[in-house]
Amino acid sequence: MPMILSPILSLAEIDIYLTRFSEIKSSNLVDFHKLLSEDELLRLDLIKSKEAKYAYIASRGLLRKIICCNFQLDNNSLDFSYSSDGKPRFSCLTSPSAESKKFNLSHSGDYFILAIGEVELGIDIQFTGGNILFYRMLHNILDKQEMSEFSKLPLHDQNKAFYRIWSRKESVLKYLGKGLSYPMPKIMASLSPNIEVDLFLINSGSTGRAITRDLDFQLKNYVSAITWYVG
Fold this sequence. Notes:
alpha+beta; CATH 3.90.470.20; CATH 3.90.470; 2 domains; transferase activity; EC 2.7.8.-
């Protein structure tokens, strides 16, 4: 599948890859399964639903394929580790210099997205066409100012706006290596096109600045955002 091995977008020394699960052939899925490590196979066994198993095999296989092709690595030498909050890192005994690369991935609905760069980053994609009753989740995600902005939107715009803010905040959480237990209202994500985030406001242990930006791939019923370190 050559389409997934080249970035669809390059942004501030970050390469972004996007592909559809539905375009992955069954033969590719078998090949991806063979790429998984023992630890990944154990994680796969814990997944119950058929759809979730498919997404796991596809996303992990794509991740390994893209990293190995871009850095000329052997899959057997590639390993992954995770922070206490679940943020992934990769290591490779045959190419220590590649370990400086940062990556983050997300999948939702039919799409998989991956970002690889020289700086800390987080990326997220959300399917907006589901049946989630988003208004029940607003107070868990928005702060008072965002709630005020949101309430002024026409009703027909609120569904996409909700997922847009959610995607932005998810990308910040993944950038910081924070889990979903972190209070989302503490993360600023207004409805403006681009947002600069002061890290010290959301994580007293961080310094410097990050930018959160929407990614517009013209996908029906999808929104995506990325956050990356700018110094």
